[in-house]
Amino acid sequence: MEDERKRLVEEEWNSMVSVNHQPARADFPLNFLFGVATSAYQVEGAANEGGRGPSIWDAFTCIEGKIIDGKNGDVAIDQYHRYKEDVDLIAKMGFSAYRFSISWSRIYPDGLGTQVNNEGIMYYNNLINYLLEKGIEPCVTLYHWDLPLHLDESIGGWLSNSIVKYFAIYAETCFASFGDRVKKWFTINEPLQTAVNGYFTGGNAPGRCDRQSAEPYLAAHHQLLAHAEAASIYRTKFKDLQGGEIGLVLDCQWAEALTDKEEDITAAARRVDFQLGWYLDPIFFGEYPKSMQERLGDKLPIFSQKDKELLRNSLDFVGLNHYTTRFVSHRTNEKENDYFRVQEATQIAEWENGVIGEKAASPWLYVVPWGLRKILNHIAQKYNNPPIYITENGMDDEDNDASPLHEMLDDKPRVAYYKGYLASVSLAIKAGVDVRGYFAWSLVDNFEWPQGYTKRFGLIYVDYKNGLTRHLKSSAYWFLKFFKGEDENNGKED
Ligand code: GBH
Question: Virtual CA dihedral for 285, 288, 293, 297, nearest 10 degrees?
């Protein structure tokens, strides 16, 4: 049965795109935005410079055993000092946008929003101005997991309703300071990960893990309200004058039913509800998905009428981070009220007879290009075809001290990954899905959260042993040729 399912899925993929299909720039609209992405804590470094206050990740990385190599983002890849070099590399590869995040505690060191740190403002002004000088559009994420530590310690971070107010003050300062030049705003990156790994497994900062509590649902609720409040401020005070757009960034793995049994098909749908519907349903339909309400009861917070109005249509586009796909089947769970069990869905990528796709370095990442096509389709169908930016997509390789540099730079699996996933995006566009842009994760190798520096997602290699020097990988050259419209078999460079 499972073999049969796998064969059908492969057939479907093969019929969608022949294995040798080479996506070309011409497969995408002219104004389609191609960019690269990073986040502040993962690349900036300069943790104690420029008046920056500590964030929850500064504290979390000090806890023994939380980060695999025991490292942190104090220096990271030092983009704070080398931003010009990095922007030059973006330009060299031919990308036309850069999605980076602002470190909240560089703007308001204690998060309270009373004293703005002008050095922080100056740093982002410099970065934004240099991007524009090089013809690259700055696209800004306001929150990519690095909450000012003081807000966690004083009010309990995302568990407190007052976080909404502090986030709104910070967001408004960013719109007022940078909005004359920044036209794409992403409020919050992956609220799912903050809810589940920040407040349930404890794998991410702030590392809370009372597995019976309602904390993940509360943290998710407040992130939604904070997003909506920021979007409302942007729309009422800035949008007319500045003419930009605002949205939030959600991550979702595609869930493919393992068999054609009805219960597996609904389990797979439920799995998508518990990732994406958790955030998009309140925005588009005014309430959490039925499947979550039924299973979580009063663990799910309630939206007041005012909340619902604030949330309704509070985005100009959906930002989607997508990396991988799983087979999902129905499973009944004895124990309720646990984020994973309560879903009554179990997911697998590997079993005796095969694997859903090639493996990347991170154990959770399998290469399944058709999954992106399906998740895009799902969003278009369920939410009435909203504009979508794919805000992250990519794969990693393992850091390997023993390999010579030229081997580390020749990242053939990553080239194959991008070809497959871009082909998938172009098919979605041809089928009418309103995808407006695509950001590769990541511009450079960087601090990969609990994995430290052991995993490398970059198009550009960072030599941590030799002064953080940057080297373009084959995938960077692949993009360069892709933008020039060159056939990759002519004019060898890799
Ligand atoms: C994104 O999250 C982040 O936005 C980005 O900062 C990050 O660098 C990038 O992905 C690559 O990871 O080890 O089994 O507990 C993607 C979603 C969710 C993927 C957590 C890794 C850990 C799974 N991530 N997940 S496990």
Answer: -130
